[in-house]
Amino acid sequence: MRKTTLIMLSTIFIILCYFTTVSAVRVFQSDLELPKEITPDQTQYRLVLITQDIDTPFWDQVGRAAENKARELGVSLEIWGNYGSHQEDFLKNIEIAIQSKVDGIIVQGLDSQAFKELTKVKASFYGIPIITVANDVPMDESLRRTYVGSNQYQAGRMIAAQLIADMGPSGNVVLMYNHNPEHYQQQRLQGIEDSLKNYPDISIDYAETESTRDEVITATQAVLNKVPNAYAFIAVNANTVGAMIQEISKRYQPEPFFIYSFDDGPESLTLVEQGLLDGIIKQSPEQMGSQSVKLMTEWLKGETVPLDANGYLTEIQIMKATDIP
Amino acid sequence: MSKIQKKIWTVSMVILAIMSAIWITLTYYNNKTLNQYNEILERYLNMNEVTNASQQVIDDLNDYMLHPSLDNLEQIELSKRKVLQAKNDVYNLRNEENNFNLTNYIHLIDSFIEATDRFIIFYSENEVEASAKEFTEATSISNHISDMTLTLIDKELKTYDRIYLGIITQSKDLKELGIWLILLIAFMLLVMSYWFSRSITKPVLQLTKAANELSKGRFDEQVKVDTNDEIAFLAKTFDHMRININKLFLETKQKAQLEHELQQNKILLQESQFRSLQSQINPHFLFNTLNTLSKKAYLEGSQETSDLLVNVAGLLRYNLKQMDRSVTLREEVVVLQQYMEIQKARLTDRLKIHMEIDEACLDIKIPTLTLQPLIENAVIHAIEPREDGGNIWVRILNGDKRITIEIEDDGMGMEADKIEQILLEKYKQTEGHSTGIGFSNVVKRLRLFYGYDDVIEIESVLDRYTKIVLKLPILRRENNDTAPNRG
């Protein structure tokens, strides 16, 4: 009897001890991990990558590559962007970056007066270097250090060549671009026009539009009415291609056109995969991201001075809907 | 300090220590958590302070533009200092996660201050356009600052979200620990108090039991308590008391027995004295008459009758002497011979007596009238019933340490239970004896005199013989003074 009681008491004691210990260990070990304090001498170059769009496949790739490179080089990099190409926010981001006196700004070029004012006047005033990426703004207008991205003229030529290869040397081609075409659009247009010039049977129609979806739809309708016998469409601004195709498919089922665009729009890749786009120009966003960070860092460290003012061109290639399995 | 008190103190101290430990731990953790909360809150407040201060600067700038007075200028300086102060506070909040943003933020504040300074310079130099531009710049930066404050706080919230979660989890864990601790301590305390109370009450119980036994008169059970406190001490003294009482008790018992023996002795003496007193007048008269008769018989030439009468008179005198005296064996033997003469005269040839006496041992002390009653007994039982008489042998033999007196007859013997009764002093005499002293009386007195029981032995075979053996120690003269007290 006495032995049983003793064993029972001991068991209870051991069980209680066990649970108490486990609980205590949990309490005493769960040290809250506050973010680490930084050592004062831990100064890194602070770079900002500012884009008009985030969360598009193209810019995601640019951002990821840039971040990887930044980590590799030991500089800190932030990516600022907004949704839906909101220009005001974009400009405000640039302004903040300048006023925050970051060490370098890598920015998607925007061919607007405000942008040029910011880069040319304000950034120079604060002494902040700017590298444009993907979309260029001429150096004398923006005082950018260099440009990292595709040769847009070459891209235009490439897409025109593909068009001719697909369509043949005759037909009506509609080029859709922004009302006030930005520098990169001008270059693309230039490339396309220069290529198509050699084919007298090809006639070019121009459709100008604003960036908003409604206006793209209106413009598309207008051009479909104006040029009923169009054979091919090229959306010079990749952002407009989604709305354009949507409108075209409303009218024609299946749509009978050759449609081409570029990969820097939010819907470009999906549309190619669905076969609605016949081909896009595939740029190298990863190369852009990593190279721009690398160049900026090198410039800041004084390793590569000056940077090539003509820009560092990245690879482009055509990607056809038929290539996709 | 006493042991029990010490025990109680120890238990209280242990409890107090445990409670304090728990209390301190819990308070410490609570404090820690509170500090963490505070720290986090402080961060938000610091950041917000920047926004407020910069807004204040803009207000002051505006005031200054409207009323360019020295007071307002001072006011600007004052609020600018506030901004700088807030900036310093914020500077300390840098950590790995918000380093980039916070550095930007600090630079933004710097830009803001610079813009303000430029504004004041331009304004003081009356460059209206430039100063207005700087004012716009400052305002826009101030807006950016408040925007960024929000962004920063948002980021802080994200960063500290998991810390909040951690704090909550920890407090939950702490609560759980508290419950387990309470259970454990409650259990421990229960067991401890049980043991502790038992350690006090058990010896008390043992003691109570012992006292109970003692009160019932059982003095031989040892009181034993195996603790090392006052109860054990109490038990020890109690045990001492028990032993002492036991000793006293035994002593009293012994004393009582002794007294009892003395009493008996006295009674026996009184009995014989009473008997002698009873026949005091008569024996004196008889004694004188006997002497007269003896002389008359002698004068008349009856020698034998005269001798017989002398013997009777001697026996009578011996018998009349103080009974509480010891005599020598020699005197006793003389009386015995006188008695034998008388009996011979009575029984003539039927009685044949054989005496073997070692003269060397006739000096020992012996109670009076010991041998005569035994012989008389032998005569009564062995000789008188038989017509052809019998033999009686009396031997006094000298031994090493003791003298042996043997009285043997060849009579009809004694039954075993009768022997036993005699030896146990329970035998009641029925036949009358000449001296009024019976067998039992002799046995008692011998035992009392010598102080041991086997002073007398009786051997007997029915129809064959009876042999009474007295084994007397040799008492020397120096013991004479004490001897009468015992006889």
TrEMBL record, chain A:
<dbReference type="Pfam" id="PF13407">
    <property type="entry name" value="Peripla_BP_4"/>
</dbReference>
<dbReference type="InterPro" id="IPR028082">
    <property type="entry name" value="Peripla_BP_I"/>
</dbReference>
<feature type="domain" description="Periplasmic binding protein">
    <location>
        <begin position="49"/>
        <end position="303"/>
    </location>
</feature>
<keyword id="KW-0732">Signal</keyword>
<dbReference type="InterPro" id="IPR025997">
    <property type="entry name" value="SBP_2_dom"/>
</dbReference>
<comment type="similarity">
    <text>Belongs to the bacterial solute-binding protein 2 family.</text>
</comment>
<protein>
    <submittedName>
        <fullName>Substrate-binding domain-containing protein</fullName>
    </submittedName>
</protein>
TrEMBL record, chain B:
<keyword id="KW-0597">Phosphoprotein</keyword>
<feature type="transmembrane region" description="Helical">
    <location>
        <begin position="177"/>
        <end position="196"/>
    </location>
</feature>
<feature type="transmembrane region" description="Helical">
    <location>
        <begin position="7"/>
        <end position="29"/>
    </location>
</feature>
<dbReference type="InterPro" id="IPR010559">
    <property type="entry name" value="Sig_transdc_His_kin_internal"/>
</dbReference>
<dbReference type="InterPro" id="IPR005467">
    <property type="entry name" value="His_kinase_dom"/>
</dbReference>
<keyword id="KW-0472">Membrane</keyword>
<feature type="domain" description="HAMP">
    <location>
        <begin position="198"/>
        <end position="250"/>
    </location>
</feature>
<keyword id="KW-0808">Transferase</keyword>
<protein>
    <recommendedName>
        <fullName>histidine kinase</fullName>
        <ecNumber>2.7.13.3</ecNumber>
    </recommendedName>
</protein>
<keyword id="KW-0418">Kinase</keyword>
<dbReference type="Pfam" id="PF00672">
    <property type="entry name" value="HAMP"/>
</dbReference>
<dbReference type="Pfam" id="PF06580">
    <property type="entry name" value="His_kinase"/>
</dbReference>
<dbReference type="InterPro" id="IPR036890">
    <property type="entry name" value="HATPase_C_sf"/>
</dbReference>
<keyword id="KW-0067">ATP-binding</keyword>
<feature type="domain" description="Histidine kinase">
    <location>
        <begin position="371"/>
        <end position="476"/>
    </location>
</feature>
<dbReference type="InterPro" id="IPR050640">
    <property type="entry name" value="Bact_2-comp_sensor_kinase"/>
</dbReference>
<keyword id="KW-1133">Transmembrane helix</keyword>
<keyword id="KW-0902">Two-component regulatory system</keyword>
<keyword id="KW-1003">Cell membrane</keyword>
<dbReference type="GO" id="GO:0004673">
    <property type="term" value="F:protein histidine kinase activity"/>
</dbReference>
<keyword id="KW-0547">Nucleotide-binding</keyword>
<keyword id="KW-0812">Transmembrane</keyword>
